[in-house]
Amino acid sequence: MQNYKVFLLSSNDNNYDEIKKLFDKKFSIVMGQSGVGKTTFINNISNNNYKTQQISKSLSRGKHTTTSAKIISFLNGFLIDSPGFSSLDVEKEINLNKSYLNFKELAKLCEFKDCMHNFEKNCNVKLNLNSNLVPEFRYKNYLKLLKEQNERK
């Protein structure tokens, strides 16, 4: 993907040197859905042992453990371990179709200038679906957020 540096990490991996540099002298928050491993990630990069739970067999992910935000001193800065969430509500309507960096260049070739990359014909983003330019998981996430935004209208 363009414009994003991707780090492939595992809870079994102990080589976090490159990603640790991103947090040096910064005030950062680790946030995401409940049970995805935020606290495990913080434990691994900071050599701490904050409480986590086993993976849920029915959910195939961790169980919600963190109930309040914790500020952790880390590399001349701070990390915040935040509780997870099940959805992210955005109060203000945003131009979601212009918010995905990897859609931006492709959208210039869509038939419609205000293409939402959903039902429109000749949508260049959809034409590039499953290519390296538009991975399916990113597009599915986009459609999910678009649906949530439209339901709030």
UniProtKB/TrEMBL annotation:
One of its GO terms (molecular function) is GTPase activity. PROSITE patterns: ENGC_GTPASE. Residues 1-86 form the EngC GTPase domain. Gene3D superfamilies: P-loop containing nucleotide triphosphate hydrolases, Probable gtpase engc, domain 3. Its EC number is 3.6.1.-. It is an enzyme of class 3 (hydrolase). Keywords: Hydrolase. It comes from the Bacteria. PANTHER family: SMALL RIBOSOMAL SUBUNIT BIOGENESIS GTPASE RSGA, SMALL RIBOSOMAL SUBUNIT BIOGENESIS GTPASE RSGA 1, MITOCHONDRIAL-RELATED. This is GTPase YjeQ/EngC. The gene is engC_2.
